[in-house]
Amino acid sequence: MTRKLVIVGNGMAPGRMLEHLVDAAPGRYQVTIFNAEPRVNYDRIMLSPVLSGEKGYEEIVIHGDGWYVKNGITLYKGHKVATIDRAAKTVTSEPGVVEPYDKLVIATGSVPFILPVPGRGLPGVLTYRDLDDVNAMLLAAQSRAKAVVIGGGLLGLEAAAGLKMRGMDVTVVHLMPTLMERQLDEAAGYLLERAVEERGIKVMTKASTKAILGKDRVEGVELADGTVIPATLVVMAAGIRPNAGLAKAAGLTVNRGIVVDKFMATSDPDILALGECVEVEGHVYGLVAPLYEMARVAGAKLAGEETTGFAHSDTPTKLKVTGIDLYSIGDFADGEDREEIVLRDAAAGVYKRIILRDDKIIGTVLFGETSDGAWFNDLKKKAVNISDMRETLIFGRAYQGGAPLDPMAAVAALPDDAEICGCNGVRKGKIVGAIKAKGITTLEQVRAHTKASASCGTCTHLVEQVIALTLGDAYNPAAVQPMCGCTTLSHNDVRRLIKAKSLKTIPAVMQQLEWTSSGGCHKCRPALNYYLVADWPNEYADDYQSRFINERAHANIQKDGTYSVVPRMWGGVTSASELRAIADVVDKFAIPTVKVTGGQRIDLLGVVKEDLPGVWAELGKAGFVSGHAYAKGIRTVKTCVGSDWCRFGTQDSTGLGVRIEKFMWGSWTPAKVKMGVSGCPRNCAEATCKDVGVICVDSGYEIHFAGAAGLDIKGAEVLGLVNTEDEALEHIVALVQMYREQAHYLERIYKWARRIGIGEIRRQIMQDTEKRRGYFARFVYSQKYAQVDPWTERVSGKDKHEFMPMATIGLAQAAE
Amino acid sequence: MSLIEIGKLSDIPRQGARCVITPTGRIAVFRTAEDHIFALEDRCPHKGGPLSQGIVHGGAVTCPLHNMVISLESGHAMGADEGWVRTFPLELDGETILIDSASLAALAA
Ligand code: SRM
Ligand SMILES: Cc1cc2nc3c(=O)[nH]c(=O)nc-3n(C[C@H](O)[C@H](O)[C@H](O)COP(=O)(O)OP(=O)(O)OC[C@H]3O[C@@H](n4cnc5c(N)ncnc54)[C@H](O)[C@@H]3O)c2cc1C
Ligand code: SF4
Ligand code: FES
Question: Which CATH number fits domain A548-626+792-816: 3.40.190.10, 3.40.30.10, 3.90.480.10, 3.40.630.30?
């Protein structure tokens, strides 16, 4: 009979434990998890990049909902466990679910330490532990006002850097004389303080918080010396405590944390505990590497495998603030029995210190240049006697044995058992082995197969070097393509940073993101213009000079420099009066060619530029607006006759097509968007090779997307079936908005979908109602600014200069 | 030398161009982000594309038809492409843009 395993807490430690368990003994337990946080397991370490805007929440999810379904695991989100009844062997959650267990795992993590000062409960005082904290900080950051971070440790500094990047005025208040004093010596702490201040963050050391001021919400922080710092946001990052209350109430042995043996058993043999909430052999931990070691042990125990017990090891500390490199491990206190080697390079802001005892490394502090951290750590772990290389040790691996090696050679020289990824304890040999055995060629695959670089990411560079060494020329790290020659950033990076840093003009993007050209080029400028139009619909002033001529002139340029004019014909439906108006325009302006297009409308070709406003004025009188046949925008919605006439028609496909086109026209998109609506599966509107298509059926509307029929040919994917026309519209609009927000410029829907994943798009649009409504609402909002007929605007005088020569020089003048 | 007024600086958008029609052909007058002005024959050396319709960036324009990049200063194609288009000297008197009629005659020749 399968046994019942219940887990309290769904953080990083039990997540890893479950991975071991479902690998080693699938189906051995029926697993139920209770998580106080209303969400799946995500990479808590990466909250700082989410705060700063360098990553999105979706990117840091470790196990999506699908993973739990696939592995038959029940996850109660937002269920905090209130009590454990050890006699009855049940747990009860606050919302009232009672769940029996055979084995119980407690993994409740830590709670932030709240300074016991007056005012600590005021609105606006936050901690920094989970996604809710980050969201609350982001909300507060919108005000661009002042923030105080209490605590100059790892968490406090990452919070401060993130808030600063979000535009707040930030002060860090720290009790001790130097920052991160538990991981850094004074010299490095001083350099860190300077580096933090260079980012525009104020630092106050030796500053003891006396009270948090404010009436209805926080207004400032008062220090012991009477100084008052105004603030609308206060983040307490003054340390964490193991979250052991629940275990204690259940009568388990608790000291600083829940006491476990080296096989993670608590004082009750049916209850295991792991993660930051436990104390093992006198140690409690605050970094993931040892927690993952616990997860390995606990997973093996539950799977019924033989295993070695948990062994203590030091974990290096790194700070995830872009541009600040520090590395510290082991013991760096001064002492009688110790010697040290120090290297300082003031100009470069580099400081390195190695602490030795009996000719062996026991601690290392590196600031400014940390690439040798892994090597020093390796020597430390293996207790290598360094007397032979004492003179050159501090210069690092590259300088051992004569001539300096290049960095690649230094990695090549690392032994197979050198640790590359500290968080996950992955050694070089494992990475090389996986690459060879599984034919891996990318960093992503290495992450998936070995977990190296999959947690905090600071070892990414080392991992890439190992891949490059193993694969030689076959490795192409430039899989991330820069947008163009003016920057090293990819489209993804640029899109994210535009949002994160609230960049709202092209010059601001170029300045802040350090463009290497003064005015961009014909590749990046149109892309940036689109990103800004899409992201700030109400604020951004469209830069016409950054648009390709077709979008600037609102007509398609032809090989002879004339233009073509394609008016909208909603859903391909027209009338005698429309056709008559077109005929009259053709006559009046002597337009040489009239052609029916592949998009169910009429193209007037060979119009000279000066005539465009005149042609548009006439067409406008008959009710025509621009067909945007020139735009990276909504093009056509092809329809078939549908239930109005066709003997097979199941729904009003023509009507739906017209409705979609009227709702969505005018919107700018990353690349053109063409749609089709067919009245039955015979599919006369060719809806299944469109960017978005609808096949009407008796029971409703089947939405398709990501088809292609141009340079590539590809049948569309099914998004899902909806019942009503209203729902069809909502889903299609939401899908296109998601595409507008995420795709790279010039990336058609099918390419974007290939990158994001059909399943993920389906999940967000079909299943996540809240997400879908959000996308829909943002589209509607941006349409307020976009759905303006550009032809009418120009007929009334906008951009007059575009259509007229500046001067005409007569023969007489020229001959003078 | 006789200078003919062809317009004001503010007639041309920054990073844009306007055309001047002459008896012998069209000239494209460009204005860069830094307010430098240049005049080129409005015919791409590749297949005659109207350079005035291109995207202006730095001191160059990208032809709208097939993306050849032309230096505004020299009229030469940049990068790996080859080709050359005539340039015309301009004078800026305060806000007023002036062109030398003699150079236009040369175009006719
Ligand atoms: C007029 C038309 C051909 C016709 O006479 O029927 C046409 C004309 C042009 N197409 Fe097209 N395409 C036309 C329907 C199509 C279709 C069929 C359709 O829409 O049902 C396709 C295949 C579906 C698709 O969109 O992929 C099509 C795939 C392309 C492509 C390939 C796009 C791709 O990503 O694979 C290009 C090139 C591009 O966009 O870079 C292109 C580019 C062009 C351009 C804009 C070339 C250019 O850059 O100057 C042509 C402009 C001529 C003009 O001034 O009107 N045209 N083109 C059709 C106008 C439809 C409309 O009413 O708006
Ligand atoms: C901003 C930030 C940055 C960090 N950076 C790094 C870093 O760079 N490197 C590093 O190694 N470590 C870092 N850490 C630490 C690392 O995230 C933690 O060590 C790790 O997440 C702890 O895992 P855990 O499973 O023990 O607990 P957690 O991940 O904290 O998970 C505990 C979960 O249990 C839930 N819970 C609590 N009580 C109950 C209950 N009664 N019932 C149900 N659920 C409950 C909580 O809601 C929480 O979701 C960072 C932490 C933070 C907050
Ligand atoms: S297929 Fe399209 S792009 Fe090619 S020549 Fe015809 S209209 Fe032009
Ligand atoms: S005509 Fe200018 S690039 Fe072809």
Answer: 3.90.480.10
CATH code of residue B24 = 2.102.10.10
Each residue's pLDDT tens digit, A681-727: 999 999 999 999 999 999 999 999 999 998 888 899 999 999 999 99
CB contact under 8 A, A814 and B105: yes
Residue A402 has pLDDT above 60, yes or no: no
CATH topology of domain A632-788: Sulfite Reductase Hemoprotein; domain 1 (3.30.413)
Ligand 4 centroid to residue B50 C-alpha, Å: 8
CA–CA separation, A218 and A233 (whole Å): 7
Where does residue A814 rank: exposed (0-12), middle (13-18), buried (19+ CB within 10 A)? buried
A117-132: average pLDDT = 95
Structure tokens given for A401:
């044995």
Which residues of chain A make contact with B56, given a CB cutoff of 8 A? 545
Match 């207004």 to its residue by tokens. Answer: A219
For A672, the enclosing helix (H) or strand (E) is: none
Distance from the B80 Cα atom to the nearest Cα atom in chain A, whole angstroms: 15
Domain A125-238 of CATH type 3.50.50.60: yes
**End-to-end CA gap in chain A:** 105
Q: Are strands A146-150 and A233-236 parallel, antiparallel or unpaired?
A: parallel
Rg (alpha carbons) of chain B, rounded to whole number: 13
Size of interface A-B (CB pairs under 8 A): 103
Could you report the per-residue pLDDT of A344-371, keeping only the tens digit for each?
A: 877 778 889 999 999 999 999 999 888 8
Give dist(CA A38, CA A35) in Å, integer.
7
Q: Domain range spanning residue B104?
A: 3-108
A519 touches chain B (CB under 8 A): yes
Q: Quote the number of domains for chain B.
A: 1
Ligand 2 mean position to A91 CA, how many Å? 21
pLDDT per residue of chain B (109 residues) written in tens, 0 to 9: 688 999 999 999 999 999 999 987 899 999 998 899 999 999 999 989 999 999 999 899 999 998 899 999 999 998 777 899 999 999 999 999 999 888 876 554 4
CA distance A229 to A212: 10
CB atoms near residue A144 (< 10 Å): 12
Are A272 and A261 spatial neighbours (Cβ–Cβ below 8 Å)?
no
ipTM, 2 decimals? 0.66
Provide the residue type at B6 as one letter.
Answer: I
| Cβ-contact A685, A639 below 8 angstroms | yes
Integer Cα distance of A298 and A5 in angstroms: 12
Ligand 2 mutation target, pool A41, A108, A280, most atoms within 8 A of CB: A108
Does A642 contact ligand 2 (Cβ within 6 A)?
no
Q: What b/e string do you get for A736-746 counting C-beta neighbours within 10 Å, with b at 16 or more?
A: bbbbbbbbbbe
Q: Chain B contacts of A552, Cβ < 8 Å?
A: 53
CA distances from A158 to A52, A264, A499 (A): 9, 31, 19
Q: How far apart are CA A542 and CA A528, in angstroms?
A: 10
Nearest CA in chain B to A811: B23
Indicate the residue of B7, B50, B54 with minimum beta-carbon distance to A806: B7
Q: Where are the domains of chain A?
A: 3-110+242-303, 125-238, 491-547, 548-626+792-816, 632-788
CATH topology agreement for domains A125-238 and A548-626+792-816 = no
Nearest CA to ligand 2 atom 14: A45
The CA A520 to ligand 4 mean position distance, Å, reads: 20
Give this prediction's pTM: 0.54
Cβ atoms of A515 and A487 closer than 8 Å = yes
The CATH fold assigned to A3-110+242-303 is: FAD/NAD(P)-binding domain (3.50.50)
Give contacts of A484 with chain B, Cβ < 8 Å. none
